[in-house]
Amino acid sequence: MPGFCQVDTSPLSTAPGGPRCATAADVNAARSRPDRSDGAQQRSPAACGTDPERPDTPVPHAFPAAPARDTASAATSPVAEHHAPLGIFLTMSRRGLAAITVLLSMMLVVIHDLPAAASTLPEPEPTTPVQELVISEAMLAASAISVPLPTARDDFALSYYTPVQWPVDPSSTISSHFGYRAAPCAGCSTQHSGVDFTPGYGTPVHAVADGVVVSRPMSGWGSYVVLESEVDGQTVLTGYAHLVSGSAAPVGTTVARGDVIGRVGNTGESSGAHLHFSVIIGGIFVEPLAWLRSHVTEPF
Fold it and tell me: Which CATH superfamily is domain 174-295 in?
């Protein structure tokens, strides 16, 4: 019955009758022998049969032998020399190759993410040539002739006003208003021609506007000042009565707004220290508080 065996082609197994099937003892003995350098090869197990003419002799079914490799010519081949540096990868383990692959991938990512400014060169600052415009008299004359300029201007108006202030502190107490009243003292009028401020004896009295001290007789005013001023284009007389004797500015004195022209007193027909202030326009006494409130422009 046919069987399988290993063909032994070594010189020791060569018999006059041809190759024979190696037994199990021969295979074990061959494995225990050291490698041979005489080119002998160990064949793979092959099927053994029975020769019809020689039934007692097994017939080997050997596999075809691979052609022998010429190691000397392979070592000196140009292809082997070209791929010699790659031999290090053939001897590396799988873990080493995986580590090198990861390292190369990380290097590619880092190089790709480098800032663009790291590889740019500083650009020189741009320089703009300076242009100069020269206009001659001839050019101006030609432009005026070709393109006439409009001479019309927008209408505008100037408004003028005269600075006016209060004669005393506007927060001062008012003891008597303009118009009809009960006479506060013997000889005092019932038709009051001004307003009475009571800031206190000796308080400075100020000119309400620029003007000149003029002479105008006033009955019962005691020591007083009459100031003629031009307020918003209108002649206005302002009177300051019952001043301290000798404190009134003399007639003919030119004063500026805010100048002290006297001090609060009790001269003339008076019931106490106060300033009697009057406004005369066109020879008529007008309500002084209303006039002040409509004309005062400067703080006290």
Answer: Glucose Permease (Domain IIA) (2.70.70.10)
